[in-house]
Every structure is written in structure tokens, then in C-alpha cells.
Specification:
single chain; 110 residues; alpha+beta; two-stranded antiparallel ribbon; elongated
Length: 110
């Protein structure tokens, strides 16, 4: 299997011709942050005074029970949640490149 490395002034790309490596997909990160296991601080959310969500009183203050997109600690909480899930499923994190996980004994990478 021949691998190709192409370099242009602004783009560096790597490809393996004639081999399907996997399915490439894109996802909404705003919803991913809500999947984390929670936050370590008290986060209060003020509801709008005009047209609040159904079942909410205008100007009501709510306590966030999980990580929320836009919060400064949301990306870190999501990474910790993802890391815990992947390690539990048998993947190992690369020591030199945090966020890169490999399934040892297999050609599959995540």
C-alpha cells in the first residue's frame, strides 16, 4: 500500500489511495457539550423576561446541572467525559498527542 504526502504553501494533506479508511462525518459541538458528566462550580442561568421557554417564569433563575456550550469549562469537561468513555472501552490515549486514541492490537484508530 503506497501512502502519499502532498504539501502546498498552505495545506499539508495525507492520503491512502484506493483504500477506504472509514466514514467521515461532522457533528454539532454545541450538543456534544451537554453530554458531559457535569460541572464543578455553581452556574446560575437567568431566564429571559420576555418569551421564556415553556414552563419557565419570566426572569426566573435556574441552576445548571451540566456543562453548557459557551461556558469556559465546557470543552475541558467534554474532553474528560470523552476520555473516560474511550478508556473504559479499551482504547489507549497517546502520551505525546492528547486527544488521539488508539485501539491496540487492531488497525482501527479513533
Amino acid at each position: 500500500m503506497r501512502q502519499q504526502l502532498r504539501h502546498s504553501p498552505s495545506i499539508l494533506s495525507w492520503s491512502q489511495p484506493a483504500k477506504q479508511v472509514g466514514l467521515l462525518s461532522f457533528h454539532d459541538a454545541t450538543a456534544a457539550f451537554m453530554q458531559s458528566s457535569g460541572i464543578e462550580r455553581l452556574l446560575l442561568l437567568g431566564m429571559p423576561s420576555q418569551q421564556p421557554p415553556p414552563g419557565i417564569f419570566p426572569g426566573e433563575v435556574r441552576v445548571a446541572s451540566g456543562s453548557i456550550y459557551g461556558a469556559t469549562d465546557a470543552p475541558r469537561q467534554w474532553y474528560l467525559h470523552l476520555r473516560t468513555t474511550l478508556l473504559r472501552r479499551g482504547l489507549q490515549e497517546c502520551a505525546l498527542e492528547k486527544g488521539l486514541f488508539a485501539l491496540r492490537g487492531s488497525a482501527d484508530f479513533a
